[in-house]
Amino acid sequence: MPSKIIALSALTAVLISSSVFAEDRWSKAKITSQNVSGSVHMLKGMGGNIGVSAGEDGILIIDDQFEPLAEKIATAIGDIAKSPMKYVINTHYHGDHTGSNAYFREVQDSTIFAHENVRKRLAEKQDHNHAALPVVTYQQGLTFHFNNETIKVMHLPAGHTDSDSVIWFENANVLHAGDLFFEGRFPYIDLDGGGTVKGYIENVTKLLNMLNDETQIIPGHGDLATKADYQMLLTMMLDTSEIVKSMKQKAISLEKAIEIGLGDKYKSWSWSFINEERWITTLYQGL
After folding, report:
1. 59: CB partners within 8 A, 6+ apart
2. pLDDT mean across residues, the chain
3. Residue range 172-186: average pLDDT?
4. Is the CB of residue 20 less than 8 Å from the CB of residue 13?
């Protein structure tokens, strides 16, 4: 058999295998629900954590994970309340936070809100679905008066990306921090998406100053958290930034910095997407 045919057959097998794995991955995914406070709930699945406001006025959600999970997410929301879907807020443009936009707009008849850079970055993708684009955009933020709650949407300067918003449930004392909070793990700072290390640290510092010890925080990724948990993230970022900055000032190469590492203290912060090597690389390139 010619080598080209063998190669193509092998590639086809890999693609089929990958497709089957992906379908299996989505089919096995579970969406779990947790009441946070009053009308505020949190959904966990695959991708960014979803915030939910459920009450007599309807349903408002924050982020919507990946497209293949849309119906599972809708079912989980229906288990919380039978109220109609009204609004979707995107905390930023990444696909694990905006993937089900088109479903909630077209099937659930929801209006999608986001910072103007979310729409801009999604629209720049050649394969984008027009129905997935936010319908209402803002520059600084806006406020929803919904389900007896004051819900403040606030855009922050470039940090995780250049399109970040956080959502503050004023009465419930709950913050949805989007990906400005990776609970108990190294954060992803999207340098190519307008994110900055300095901005991420400054935004977390600003948000911490808004909170009190009773505030509950829905992180972009991880478990429901507290101000103390958020402070741990800030402390880690400040400390590891100084470690890497010191190495750069001594003209230590990135490769050598990775070899030296951050010490045993931060081993537990590594995870599948941002391990120690990638976090050091982010700091080295972003400082």
Report:
1. 52, 53, 77, 80, 81, 83, 84, 85, 86, 87
2. 93
3. 98
4. no
- CA atoms within 13 Å, Cβ hemisphere of 95: 8
Q: Is the pTM of this model over 0.85?
A: yes
Q: Comparing C-alpha atoms, which of 100, 32, 98, 89 is closest to residue 61?
A: 89
Give the Cα separation of 244 and 56 in Å (integer). Answer: 51
CA pseudo-torsion sign 136, 69, 97, 223:
positive
CA dihedral of residues 273, 176, 180, 67 (deg, nearest 10)? 40
Quickly count: other Cβ atoms within 10 Å of residue 103's Cβ: 22
Beta bridge mates, 154: 141, 166
Q: In what order do the strands lie in the sheet with 141-146?
A: 141-146, 149-155, 165-169, 174-182, 216-221, 225-226
Distance, in Å, from the CA atom of 151 to the CA atom of 157, rounded to the nearest integer, reads: 20
Strand partners, 51: 42, 62
Identity (one letter) of the amino acid at 245?
K
Q: What is the Cα 103 distance to its own chain's centre?
A: 19
What confidence tier does 22 reach under pLDDT thresholds 50, 70, 90? Answer: low
Amino acid identity at 109: D
Distance (Å, whole) CA 101 – CA 132: 5
Block residue for tokens 């505030």: 215
